[in-house]
Amino acid sequence: MADGSAAALVKTTCPYCGVGCGVSGAVGQAPSSDGRALSVAGDAAHPANLGRLCSKGTALGATVGLQGRLLEPTVNGKAASWADATALVAKRFRDTIARHGPDSVAFYVSGQILTEDYYVANKLMKGFIGSGNIDTNSRLCMASAVAAHKQAFGADLVPGCYEDLDLADLVVFSGHNAAWTHPVLFRRMEAAKARGQKHVVIDPRRTDTAEGADLHLAIAPQSDVRLWNGLLAHLIRIDAVDRDYIAAHVNGFDAVEATLAELDQSPAAVAADCDVALDDLLSFYKLFADNPKTVSLFSMGANQSAQGTAKGLSILNVHLATGRIGKPGSCPFSITGQPNAMGGRETGGMANTLAGHMDFAPADRDRVARFWGAPDTARAPGLKAVDMFEAIHAGKIKAVWVMATNPAVSLPDAGRVREALDRCPFVVVSDCVETDTTAFADVKLPALAWGEKDGTVTNSERRISRQRALFPAPGQARADWRIVADVAKAMGFDGFGWSSQASVFREWARLTAYENTGDETGRVLNLAGLSTLTPETYDQLLPIQWPVRADGRGTPRLFTDGRFQTPDGRARMVPVRPKGPADAMDAAYPLSLNTGRIRDQWHTMTRTGLAPDLCRHAPEPFVEVHPADAEALGVQDGALARVITVRGEAVALAKVTERQRPGGLFMPMHWTDAFAPSGRSNHLIAPNLDPTSGQPEFKHTPARLRPYRET
Ligand code: SF4
C-alpha cells in the first residue's frame, strides 16, 4: 500500500477449473479508472494447491476490472429498478406457467455459480415451480462421469482425493490433458513422477500431458471402450483381477466377462482396433498389472462423447475388478472442468436429480418436498441442456432464465441455440458481464463477479471451500442467490427469506443431514457437521471434504470399507460394448473435428480475455491438422484455413503439427463474437448426445478443411 500499511489478505478460491486452488488476495491502491487493483498468490494452507497457482490463477488480478460489466438491471434495453425488473420476471414466469404449465419454463445455469446460488435456483424450479427444467452447463463437461458413477456406485460419488495422485505408482490420463486443463494438479503429479511415478496418456492428440509421459497411446478416436475392455480381458487372462474383492463387494463381473467374450480380446486385435502399436499396448497392460497403486483420471476427452457413459464405466469396471478403489493411491478419478460443477451435482443443478443426490423416485421426491414444504415439487426429471434449447426452439419452453453462462457460444450447434433464444418469448439473463447471450435477453440482471461473491464451491475431490468477497458490489450488482430468491418471493412463494448466504448454506446442509428428511439409508453426501454453522463459523470455514458427519470431520476417501451406495451395498460392474461415433465421416466430410480448451483461456473468455499475459499464449483461433492432411489439402502452416461442417464454417489459423492424428482436427472452443466471431467452433458441432448422460459429442463431428483461398 502506498501509505505503508499492509493490505488485508482475503482467502478465497480460484474461479476457473475444478482443481479449486486456494487464493490469497490483497486489494491494493487503484491505479485504474475503475478503481480496482488486486494482487494474488497461491494459498499455501489450501490442501488443493499448497501455494501453487497456474497461469490463469496468477492473472486473476488483471481480470477484476469493470470493463463490460452489467451494473444495472435492464428491461428491453432500458435501465430499470431492481423492483421493476424482479416484478416483471416474476409476472412473466407466473403467467407462462398459468397458461402453459410448469414445464413451459426453464433455467439454464452454470458451474460458475456458487453452491448457495445453485441451491436456491433448484429449490425455486424443482420445488416451487414444480418442473425439473433446470440444467447446468456442467452437462457439457462431466455428465457422463456422473451417469457412470450412479450406475457403478449407486450415487454420483468421486472415490478418491488429490493425495492419491501423490501416492500412486501409476497414473493413467484418459482423455485428460491435465497439463493445460488442471495445471496445478499436473505439477503435483510431475513431482511424483520425479520420484518414480509412471504416466500413461490415452489421447488421440499428443498433448503437453502426453509429451512428457512414459507412454502415450494415441488411440483412434472413440476407441476408449475397446482399449479398457481389452485391458480388463487381459487382466482376467493373466489372473490379475482381485477375486476376493469381487466376491465381497462387486456384482456384475460374470456379465461383463461374458460381454468381453463377444469380441476377440487378443492384444493384436485390440491394438488394431485402437490403431496403436502392439508393443505399446502390451507396455500399458504390463504397467497396469504391475502397479496396484493406480489412479485413472478421466475428463472431457472421455466424457464428451456419444458413448461417454460407457467410457466411464469401462474405466470403473477395471478398477472394481482389481479392487483398486477406496485405497490410498488407488482409484478411478473423474476431474471436473468448472470450479463448482460438483456443487451443482450436489444441490440438484442437473435436470435429472434432486438436491442431496436424491432422485425422482417417489420416496426421494417426497423427502425433498417435505423438507421444503413444497407439495408441488417436480415428480420427473426435466430437460437436459441440449434438449432444453431444442424445446425452446420448438416453442415448448416459452420463458428461460440463463444464469452466468453463454450458451450462444458454448453449446453444440450454437447457431440453432441462437435461433432458439431469438424465438423464445421471454429470455432473462443474469450475469456479471455482457456476453453473446445477453444480446437475446429481454431482461438483464447484474450479478456479482468473482472477487465480489461470497459463498462456497466444491472441487473435484469433494472439498468445499469458501469464495470470499474482495471488493464491494459494483453498481447495482447482486448475489445470484438473492436475485433468484427475490423473484421467488415476488412469485408468491414462501421459503426464500434467507438473510445471508450463510443461512442458505445452513439450510442446504440440513437437507443432506438425513434425519431432517426421515431418510435412514445413510447416504454418503452428508453435511450434517456443517448444518449448524453460524455466520461467523461459516465465514471462517476451512476447506473440508464431504461427507462431513456430525463430529465435523471431513472424509478424504470413499468406499474404504468396500460398501457402496447401492441397495445391497455392493458396487456394480456394467457390461459395455465399443461403438463408433454418432455421425460417421464420408467423402464430403472426411475429417473428425474435436473442440476443446487451451491452456490460458477459460470458457468464452469473458475474464481471461481481459488479461494480456493470457492472450499471448494463443492470440487467434486456430485449427490443428496433421502434416499429411495439410499437404493433401494444400493447407499451409500459419495460413488461414476454413473448417466446414454441415452446420457452418469457421476461419482459423492452420497449425500443422504431428501432435494431431491423421484424419483429425482440433479447434479451441473459446472465441466469441466479441473476440473473433469467425473463429467460433462449437456452432460447427453436431448436437449428438450420449443417450444416458445427455452430454454432447464435442470430440467428434465430421468436417472438411480448405485453404482460406483455394487456388
Ligand atoms: Fe485456478 Fe485451476 Fe489454475 Fe488452480 S489449476 S489456479 S483452480 S485455473
TrEMBL record:
The keyword Mitochondrion does not apply. Its cofactor is Mo-bis(molybdopterin guanine dinucleotide); [4Fe-4S] cluster. Residues 7-68 form the 4Fe-4S Mo/W bis-MGD-type domain. Belongs to the prokaryotic molybdopterin-containing oxidoreductase family. NasA/NapA/NarB subfamily. Keywords: 4Fe-4S, Iron, Iron-sulfur, Metal-binding, Molybdenum, Nitrate assimilation, Oxidoreductase. The chain holds residues 1 to 711 of 901 of the full protein. Residues 555-579 are annotated as: Disordered. This is Assimilatory nitrate reductase catalytic subunit.
